[in-house]
Each structure stands twice: as C-alpha cells, then as structure tokens.
C-alpha cells in the first residue's frame, strides 16, 4: 500500500510484462518475506528511486522491481508479495511461489522480522524446499534490541545452511553485507547446504516412491522432492504452472529467456 | 474450594473466542476446512501452539491474540472454529 | 519429451499419489504445516533468547489507549480532525503565497502580450483560460496535498492503520463487508484511484467490488479544497479555520456513514454473499522516519500535482474559456448550457453553472471550483480572486448563493461519481464494464437523491 505518485495515476493498474533474466541486468534477485517485516524498506533502500511498480501479468497483484549496482554488476530486484507461506492459499502466495519456482531468480532474499522469528522461519523453510540459492535477511534488529531479544546468528546460519545477515534497513545498517552475500550466492561463489525438513515416515516413504518418477519426467529443471510433496498434497495449481513453464521453455520463439510465470 | 493451584483447575476445551483476556491456552483442533483451515494453520495455529488473548475491539469484535510472537485479530465466527485447551473457570 | 506427455505423466503421478494416500488418511496438508512449524519452533528456541525484560511495553500501552472501549473511537475521530486541521490551517499561507506569485506572473504575461500587440483572444485563451486555471489548481491543490500525504504516510509507517481496521471491523461486518475496507477507505482520502487499487488487499471478489464502488464516498484530496472553500464561506467571520474544520469533519463523517449504508445495501442486493474469513495482523508500532518520509512525500506530491495540472487543468481552462467566449446567438455556449441545466440545478439546491462545473470536472475533481469561478466571472465584472471576501462577493452577492447552495454543493461534491482516473483504474481492476458503469451511476444516484431531499426539505420546512 502507499499513497505515492505511482499509485495514484491512471498507470498504476498497468500490467508489467516482465521479461526474463537478460533485460539489462547481470543478476535477478527475488525478495520474499512475511508481511510487516520491513521488506519494502529493504527494497527501497537498495533500489532508491530506481524502481518501477506495475502488475504481475494477468493478475491484480502489485509487482515492484528495481535496480542497484554492486562492484560493477547490475542487479535487478523483484519484490514478491508479502506472504505467510508458499502453499498457494491465495493469489499472492501463488504468484510468489510460481516466481521462485519457475522464474529462476539467481538468488532469493527472505526478509525476516527479528522480533517474530518463529512465525517467519516457517516461510524460510518453505523457500529452502524450492531453491538453495537463498540469503536470509534478519531485519528490524533495532526493534529486537529495544525489546531485549538476542539472536545467535552463527547458530542460525548453521541450522539453516545458508548465509544469514542481520539488518536494520531503516537506518541502512547491514545492507552492505546483505548485498555482498547476495552477490556471492548469485555468482555461485558461495555454496549452500540448506536445511531439509523431514516429514513423517509414511509421507517420506511416499516421496521416495514418487521422486525418481518425477525426475524421469521433468529432469533436473525442477526440484523433484518439492514437486513430489506438492503432488501428494493434491496441489493442482502447481501442475498447471509446471505445464505453462514447460511451454515457455520449449517454445523456440522465447529464445534464451528464462521462464516467466503466467 | 479454590486454592489457586493448577491441579484443581480442570482443563476444558473451549473456542478461541471464549478465551478470557489476559489468559493463555494451547490449540486443540481446527474445525474449519478447506482454504480457511490452511490459512489458519499458516498463521501458526497448529495443535499444541500456545495462544494468549490480548484485547477486544471497542466495537466488541474482533479479538486480538498473541500467536508465535505476532498479534493477530480474529472475528467471532472465525475464532469459534478454533478449539483450545484452557485451564480455568 | 513433449509437453503433452509430461502433463499426462504428472497426472498419472497424481493418481499414484492418491493411491499412496488412501482416502486422505495421511492428512498430508496438516502434517506438512505442522512439521515445518515444528522445525521452525525448534530452531527459534535454540537461536532466540531474551536478555532481561524490556522496560516498557509500548505496543501494549499504546494499544490499551487507541483500541480501548473508552478512547478507541474518540481517538480515531481526534486523529482525523487533527490531520484535517493541520491540512487546512497549514495550507493557508503557502496557498496564498503561491497564488500571489502565480497571479503576479499572470499579469506580467498579459502585459507582455499587450506589448506585443497580440489580439485579445490570445490573451484570453492562453492567459485567462489555460494559465489561470493552471495557476489556481497549483496554488490551491499543492499545499494541502503536500501536507496530507506525508501525514498519511507517517501514519502508515507508524503501524497505526491496522488499528483503524480493528476498531471499525464490527461496523463493516454489520454492513456485510470486509474489515479491511476501512483501510481502503482511508486511502481514498488521499486519492480514490489509489484507494481502488488498495482494494487488492481484500481477497473475496464480492467484498472487493463493494469496497471499490463505495470508495468515492470519501472525499479525495482533489475535493478537499472545494469542501474547505465552501465550508469557509459558510462560517465566514467567526474563527474560520476552526469552524471550517468542524464542518469538513462533519461532511467526512457523513461520507463514511454513506459508505456503510451503501455497502450494506449492495451486500443485500447486487452483491449478496457471506462474509469471508478475516485475520488481521496488528504489527508493532514503529517510530516513523520523519525526515525521509516527509521529504520523499513532498517531492512526490509536487511532481504529481504539477503533472496533473498540465494534463488536466490546462485543457480544462482552455475549454471553459472557449465555452464562455464563443457566442451562439446572444449568449455564450456556457450560458446556454447553464440555463439549460438550471432547472435541474435548482431542484437539487444548486444552479446550472455548478452542474456544468461538475460535468466538466469529470477528468479530475480539483478543477470543479476553478471552472465554477471562471464560469461565474464570465458573466459578471472582472474581479481578482485572492481572498475569501472576493469569493463571497462572487458567489453570494453576484450569484445569489445561500447556505443551502453551499451545503448542497458540498454534499454533491462528496457523493457524486468518481473522477475519470478512478473510473479508469476501476475498470482495469474489475475488468468489467458493467461494474465500472455501476460505480459511476450508484454514487450519482445517491448524490442526486440526497441533494434533492435536502433542498426540498429545507424549502418546504421554510428554513430558508
């Protein structure tokens, strides 16, 4: 939300047919997180006035994207809608999930609220099931400090298996380290070993049965374990999105452009 | 005879809406189905979660609760679909 | 592998999944969510710790006041009045300064043109028409917008807005709509188009439509100056700022009541359905970043107003000048139109010139007043419009205004159809011509009915 110049004019409801990876940026980074975590502050701090708001294609969900430079490279930052989870219970969650899965960003930043870690970690774990190229940004550390909350970042990094960067985006604190970590992940310099959530025995057994069959069908292009879980969960929308994504990938007219969700 | 010790307070199952302000309880079950159920679960209200009733709107409804560090307000109809284990009168 | 066979393959796997999970016995959805949260809890427990208790729980203290039975509603009302008062009082001096400056420039332009021996119509069309309308809009619109928008953004930044939803939800539930409509309604105070877009936070299409259609019942910033000017006219003399604020607050409250009433009607007739689930998060209060917000917002608003002035006010000025100066028979087109609309205007407590101003004001609400003023001025003697007294002279003395006229114009301005930008946005958001048309017709119907009833009752009761 927000009463800004862009949100008031007649162009605010325009669709933004975002192109794939190659439109003038070296790396494309997705920004995810719960609502109310200061995600937009992180976005605004990094992109400044270099941003543009529109819509996700075919949906009335706001899409903001912007650019920033770091060490001579251009990064395109896509602000995903704030969601509590990625299990596709709403249009926003579907948009976020589809982008992470099929939009293939070079890195994903998940913004957490340091004063509300338990609830926020839920989203991080779900994101880690989809992609391993993740940087966790623990924002609002100034608020946490005020409430005398202390976080063991080293332990958190060890538990999650991905880089964790504390920030207080309002004051611009920690953003340089964040940008550094993102660059490391996007370029492949930093390798991660993300935490894998193990489910109940019977579910894991079912996943074991489905996973190899899925791998045979879709190859390495998708995270087979995650797909298996979604199929077990009877998630029809995932199948539709997989289909669409494959359409785009196989269409020679699309050339090298990566998949963009519909 | 009330002695104030927990042993004498029976644990009952009531709806989230009926949780008195300032008291806490643990989630027993979610009665909603479909998308509503998933949304409620996504907020962290899975069985065993601790909830605390914080306040009521001046209009009488909704009621705000502390759930896993966040404050979430539910309307009467929706809070009635969440059952909790409560120790108290 | 072809797409078709992959789809087929995946569907097969769906079936196999059903076999692996006979009758949903594994309760996969619940289990997955539980497991993930369980792990999250584990990690959090190990990683997060408390180092003593914080001195004061500000969130609780603030909420204890702002959402309490006693202070909840009064504090909201007070905040609304405060924001309006700051906007009204704070905009006075900058508006005057801008007006003086821009109209000084206007006189210089006229001088230059006469020095160049340009024909009278050049001065008329460009200076008296286009430039004057532009100058009026900028000097009147810019200061209030540059004050209101930062105020609203500060409120948003501080985390207060969801509390408005929390307090008003019961009212909106009884009106059959979603609690978040209170938020979209608040945004409508800034700009109705932005309010319509904000309706995306309401998921159920039915409730979203209700919120979009009723959004124009709260006056956007474009209508504020009109309401303020008219309210000031009504209380001229005693303590203008304070009295005007009270009246504006009253009008706004009436707009909110209308929103609820129309929402209720819609949810019982055209948009029937059940209320959806509602879980509202109340985030912790945060100290808003004063400096950044204010400077960003002011910069933002200035660009917006200037751009709008050029796109909308300038052409409108041209049109009204043409209409006032092209004569058909012995009357200008404007006068013809005003005369033709006059009977309807009188029925509604207004007059033909006011109605024309509203019709021509469809592109943007802020030009209604300038068009009206220019319309009146074209039939009377030329006077400079730089004070309330001058306005009073023009409206009351020369064109027979009464308090009823001012009241009806305020009511019509509050309730009438949304501006073209909002309608355009509504169309994009709803993807339906039918609902866009209704979003224009329903407010118009309400406005006409209310003005008619008020005007006729006042006359019948002999209050005038």
Gyration radius over CA of chain C: 27 Å
CA-based shape of chain B: globular
**What is the CATH superfamily label of chain B?**
Ferrous iron transport protein A (FeoA)
Judged by helices, strands and strand pairing, the structural class of chain B is: mainly beta
What is the highest CATH level, the class of chain B?
Mainly Beta
Number of domains of chain B: 1
Tell me the total number of β-strands of chain B: 6
Largest interface: A-C, 68 and 66 residues
Instruction: Indicate the multimeric state.
Output: heterotrimer
**Helix-strand category of chain C:** mainly alpha
Main beta sheet of chain C: strand number and arrangement? 2 strands, antiparallel
* Low-confidence spans of chain C: none
Mean pLDDT of chain B: 85
Number of domains of chain C: 1
Going across the biggest sheet of chain C, name each strand in turn. 3-4
- Can you tell me the CATH topology of chain B? SH3 type barrels
The helix fraction of chain B, in percent, is 10-25%
Cα Rg of chain B: 13 Å
**H/E element order of chain C:** HHEHHHHHHHHHEHEEHHHHHHH
What's the tally of helices of chain C? 19
The termini of chain B sit apart by 12 Å
């Amino acid at each position: 939300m927000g009463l800004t110049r862009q949100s008031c004019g007649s162009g605010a409801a325009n669709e933004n047919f975002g192109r794939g990876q190659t439109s003038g940026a070296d790396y494309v980074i997705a920004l995810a997180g719960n609502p109310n975590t200061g995600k937009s502050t992180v976005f605004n701090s990094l992109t400044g006035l270099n941003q543009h708001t529109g819509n996700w294609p075919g949906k009335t969900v706001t899409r903001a994207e912007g650019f920033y430079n770091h060490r001579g490279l251009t990064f395109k930052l896509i602000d995903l809608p704030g969601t509590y989870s990625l299990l596709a219970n709403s249009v926003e969650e579907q948009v976020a999930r589809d982008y992470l899965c099929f939009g293939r960003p070079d890195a994903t930043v998940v913004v957490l609220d340091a004063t509300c870690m338990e609830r926020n970690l839920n989203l991080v774990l779900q994101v880690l099931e989809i992609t391993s190229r993740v940087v966790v940004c623990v924002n609002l550390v100034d608020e946490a400090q005020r409430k005398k909350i202390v976080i063991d970042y080293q332990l958190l990094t060890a538990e999650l298996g991905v880089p964790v960067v504390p920030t207080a985006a309002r004051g611009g604190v920690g953003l340089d380290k964040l940008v550094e970590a993102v660059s490391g992940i996007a370029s492949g310099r930093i390798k991660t070993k993300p935490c894998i959530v193990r489910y109940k025995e019977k579910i894991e057994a079912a996943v074991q049965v489905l996973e190899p069959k899925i791998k045979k069908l879709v190859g390495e292009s998708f995270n087979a374990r995650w797909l298996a879980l979604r199929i077990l969960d009877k998630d029809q929308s995932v199948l539709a999105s997989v289909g669409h994504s494959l359409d785009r990938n196989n269409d020679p007219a699309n050339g090298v452009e990566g998949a963009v969700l519909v | 005879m009330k002695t104030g010790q927990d042993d004498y307070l029976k644990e009952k199952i009531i709806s989230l809406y009926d949780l008195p302000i300032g008291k806490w309880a643990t989630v027993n079950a979610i009665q909603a189905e479909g998308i509503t159920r998933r949304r409620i679960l996504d907020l962290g209200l899975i069985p065993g979660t601790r909830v605390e009733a914080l306040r009521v709107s001046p209009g009488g409804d909704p009621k705000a609760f502390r759930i896993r560090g966040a404050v979430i307000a539910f309307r009467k109809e929706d809070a009635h679909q969440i059952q909790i284990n409560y120790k108290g009168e | 592998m072809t797409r078709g066979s992959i789809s087929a393959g995946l569907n097969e796997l769906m079936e196999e999944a059903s076999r692996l999970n006979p009758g949903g016995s594994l309760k996969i959805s619940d289990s997955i969510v539980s497991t993930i949260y369980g792990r999250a809890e584990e990690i959090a427990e190990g990683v997060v710790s408390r180092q003593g208790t914080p001195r004061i729980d500000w969130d609780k203290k603030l909420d204890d006041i702002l959402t309490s039975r006693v202070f909840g509603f009064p504090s909201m009302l007070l905040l609304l009045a405060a924001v309006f008062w700051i906007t009204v009082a704070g905009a006075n001096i900058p508006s005057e300064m801008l007006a003086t400056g821009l109209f000084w420039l206007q006189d210089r332009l006229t001088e230059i043109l006469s020095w160049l021996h340009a024909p009278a119509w050049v001065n008329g069309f460009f200076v008296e028409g286009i430039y004057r309308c532009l100058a009026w809009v900028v000097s009147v619109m810019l200061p209030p917008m540059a004050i209101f928008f930062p105020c609203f953004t500060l409120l948003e930044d501080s985390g207060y807005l969801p509390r408005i939803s929390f307090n008003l939800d019961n009212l909106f539930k009884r009106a059959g709509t979603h609690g978040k409509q209170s938020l979209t309604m608040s945004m409508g105070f800034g700009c109705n188009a932005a309010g319509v877009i904000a309706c995306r936070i309401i998921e159920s299409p039915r409730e979203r439509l209700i919120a979009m259609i009723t959004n124009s019942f709260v006056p956007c910033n474009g209508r504020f100056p009109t309401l303020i000017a008219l309210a000031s006219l009504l209380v001229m003399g005693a303590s203008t700022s304070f009295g005007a604020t009270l009246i504006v607050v009253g009008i706004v409250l009436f707009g909110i009541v209308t929103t609820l009433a129309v929402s209720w009607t819609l949810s019982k007739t055209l948009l029937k359905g059940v209320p959806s689930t509602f879980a509202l998060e109340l985030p912790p209060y945060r100290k808003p970043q004063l400096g950044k917000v204010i400077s960003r917002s002011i910069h933002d608003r200035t660009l917006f107003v200037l751009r709008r002035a050029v796109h909308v006010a300038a052409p409108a000025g041209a049109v009204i000048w043409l209409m006032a100066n092209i004569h058909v028979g012995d009357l200008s087109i404007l006068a013809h139109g005003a005369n033709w609309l006059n009977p309807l205007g009188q029925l509604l407590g207004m007059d033909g010139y006011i109605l024309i101003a509203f019709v021509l004001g469809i592109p943007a609400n802020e030009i209604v007043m300038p068009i009206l003023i220019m319309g009146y001025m074209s039939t009377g003697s030329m006077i400079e419009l730089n004070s309330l007294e001058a306005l009073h002279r023009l409206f009351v003395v020369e064109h027979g205004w009464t308090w009823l006229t001012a009241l009806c114009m305020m009511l019509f301005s509050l309730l009438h159809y949304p501006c073209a930008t909002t309608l355009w946005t509504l169309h994009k958001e709803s993807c339906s011509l039918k609902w866009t048309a209704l979003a224009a017709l329903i407010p118009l119907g309400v406005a006409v009915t209310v003005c008619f009833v008020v005007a006729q009752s006042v006359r019948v009761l002999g209050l005038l």
